[in-house]
Specification:
This protein has 60 residues and is mainly beta. Helices cover 8% and strands 57% of the residues. It has a five-stranded antiparallel β-sheet with strand order 4-3-2-1-5, with no helix packed on it. The longest helix is centred in the first third of the chain and has 5 residues. This is YolD-like family protein.
Length: 60
């Protein structure tokens, strides 16, 4: 159910675990790769973030 929400073209905020600490980023979903279990976000400055689905703690 939540995967359908990720495909909407709106900004979301994701809190995730990376390199031993929690990180937060805000952006739009560019790509959802279920084979590699990654989510790719692009923020307001067009910077791209690739996040493993298993490391996501919270989505707003």
């Amino acid at each position: 159910m939540f995967l359908k929400e990720l495909t909407k073209n709106c900004f979301i905020t994701i809190t995730y675990f990376q390199n031993g600490s929690f990180e937060t980023c805000k952006g739009r979903v560019c790509k959802l790769d279920l084979h590699q279990q990654t989510l790719t976000l692009k923020d307001e400055q067009q910077k791209v973030f690739s996040i493993y689905l298993s490391s996501i703690k919270e989505i707003h």
